[in-house]
Design a protein that fits this description.
PAP/fibrillin_dom, 284 residues, Plastid lipid-associated protein/fibrillin conserved domain-containing protein, disordered N terminus, globular, 31% strand, alpha+beta, PAP, 26% helix, plastid, signal, 8-stranded antiparallel β-barrel
Amino acid sequence: MLVVLAFLLATFLPSTSLSPSLHNKQSSVFGNYISHRGQALYAENNDVHNDNDTAATLKSRIFAACAASDRGYAASPSDRRNIEDQLLNLSTLSPLVEPTLGVDEGLSNSPLKACWRLVYTSASDVSTLGASGSSSVGGIYQDARELPVITNVIDLSPRVLQNLPPGRASEALSTVTRIKVQTRARARSPTCVGLTFESVAVSPISTLGLASPSWLPPLKIPLPQLGLDLQRLLFGVSESEDPRDAPNNPGFFDVLYLDDDFLVIKQGGSGGIFAAIKVDGLSS
């Protein structure tokens, strides 16, 4: 059951490509570009202060709406429209021209290099996890601190224990299982990240209030890897093309918005928008 959930989580980071009109809309707001080797590319915009104020206001509204909808799990259709309209409005104010800079090399100043915690998703393969009768969903993360490796993380707890009131009893019975899906990232374009899924790992974080010993290894399952020639056949591209960049290869995500503490992406495959805030690391 946990491995199945882990595979569902594996889609946390792919994303369907943005339409050309949205890509053009994003580019039009930036004005003249400033390029520096090894540094993030920021847009030069005469109205940068106004944009910053507008972005701050939108982010405040988005955070409030995401909290009220329990990361999207309790969102009504109108809630989703409201949140996603604001996220798309925010995407036109993204300060970075090349958010994927340094992903392949794992540069220390890569804009994506951080641990990101989910605050909203509209992807059905993730949001339906909240409807499980046996498991309660804890933190969901995109851990990109070790680029080009990006690890999708989800913490699960028995739902019956989550119904206990806060206090010593709930702490004493705390039981958390962590699922990690490891991917390897590569920039497909200045705003698109391709992904190769490498492994799924399941490990207990705590059992009935007791932390799992550090020497206990996780249950790790390598995922099958397809050769490039087989991928070319699968995705219908020529020998001169890299099949990992094929338009119909669903293993990717588009960066809609990225600043110092907020990330919005749109995934491939099954689609869906994800919004995440920067955090120091995974919860212990």
